[in-house]
Amino acid sequence: MGVRGANGAGGPSGFAARLLDALLPVQCVGCGTWDTVLCPACARLADGTEPDWHVLETSPPSPDLGVWTLGEYEGRLRRIVLAAKHGERVGLAGFLERAGRALGEGVAASGLVDGARGEAEDIWVVPAPSGWRRRFRGQMVAPDVARGVGSELARSTGLRVRVISCVRLRAGAPSQSGRSAEERRSGRAGSMASAADVPPGVAVVLVDDVITTGATLRELARVCGTGTVAAAALCRAGPRTG
Ligand SMILES: [Zn+2]
């Protein structure tokens, strides 16, 4: 809870929020069970099963990407992600980080970061950039997931890992919310820019919250360059090949 509400922006400040938490009945954000923010069954969605993966085709020179997700954007997982993105008082950072570690395990096991490409010396884990509204309100999902991915990749590959927001949205880039698949695809191209160039010898792993058309990951891969090897996201909406 420490990252938001310190100055009262967007909701009750720290002490008042804790008081409200203590007074109001809570329900699991995934299934509605009373008296818990996240019940044990829903908490297990983070890392109870092996993440699945698919291949996302990109445009050359970016290589096609292996993309790991916890599953489809539906049911309890969808409600948890929505709560993390839009909820005012829920603390789901722990869930997001554990999910990130599970996804990182999948990426590491694939050998993409240290095997197939051979010479990676460092790994950069790059979260998708958020619009200013979400940054302002502290409701950022990808950075928490990225921390989990990074810690697991560091543990299992032994490489140096940095979680780094080296991609930014260009000024005036439109929000993707409420847009059609076609609008999303065309709207993303050119919408991001580099905030720090990826050095040679660095393998890049991209992190997003929900994959819809894949347009966000393709744009991230375009900006990060040919060192981009894999991606991780909480869930996948729509057709797999998107
Ligand atoms: Zn639940």
TrEMBL record:
The lineage of its organism: Bacteria, Bacillati, Actinomycetota, Actinomycetes, Actinomycetales. This is ComF family protein. Belongs to the ComF/GntX family. It comes from Schaalia naturae. CDD domains: PRTases_typeI. Residues 175-195 are annotated as: Disordered. Gene3D superfamilies: 3.40.50.2020. SUPFAM superfamilies: PRTase-like (SSF53271).
